[in-house]
Amino acid sequence: MPLFSQAISDFWLSPFMKGNVLYSDEVFMVIINPELNEDSRVMVVETFDGGVMAVLTPAMATKAGFFEKEELSESTFRQKLNKAGITLHGADYLFYFSEAEKKVLMQESLDGVVRPLTEQDEVRFSEFQSSASEQDLDDAYVELDHWAVFGSFDQNRLVSAASMYPWQASKMADLGVLTLTSYRGKGHARKVVRSISKYAYEQGYEPQYRCQLDNLTSVSLAKAAGLTLFGKWEVISPNSAN
């Protein structure tokens, strides 16, 4: 059995299956792909097995001074990008459920304190948001009008919530989760992540959990919820030079 579903591998590998190979060795590959969209005109993916794949448009390759049959390494690749003023957004970890863990998840029953949230929960959700810091709200990006929203309650008070939306016109459902500070470490976040992920699977989507590399709390939650690290993803910064 493969560690992850084919849908995950296909999604992340598809940009590297088109275009021309600029450089390739056992651990590092650079692809020139003219079909990349504007937001992804430079992208780097490091998979769980240690392989690093970079893809960029012909225009970005020209700007950075790359040419065919050039000896490259990940380090020299990044140096050339920096010298050309091409900056990458801070890397995200990508977590998914393994095929084995998915089977376990799909056999679980919804915990009694966790349920889907609807428009009827607007007052509770507003109170929940007002109890969280602006930084936590920005980091989590949990919204009541997202494609799917689940919440965990403590004596009828909403204390943890997760929401999802289809990501990049794919069958990936990107999720965010937020738990009020005084209720952390009590299992609420784990329950909402697993519950909303099961719902996503039932709708034909693959749950996706992203977080910054330095967000150790979020990394710990991903692992506690049964997710497995797929790799790291970097994309060109919106503020990067054209």
UniProtKB/TrEMBL annotation:
InterPro entries associated with the record: Acyl_CoA_acyltransferase, GNAT_acetyltra_YdfB-like, GNAT_dom
Domain N-acetyltransferase: 112-242
Domain of life: Bacteria
Residues spanning the signal sequence: none
Pfam families: GNAT_acetyltran
SUPFAM superfamilies: Acyl-CoA N-acyltransferases (Nat)
GO molecular function: acyltransferase activity, transferring groups other than amino-acyl groups
The protein, known as: GNAT family N-acetyltransferase
Organism: Paenibacillus agilis
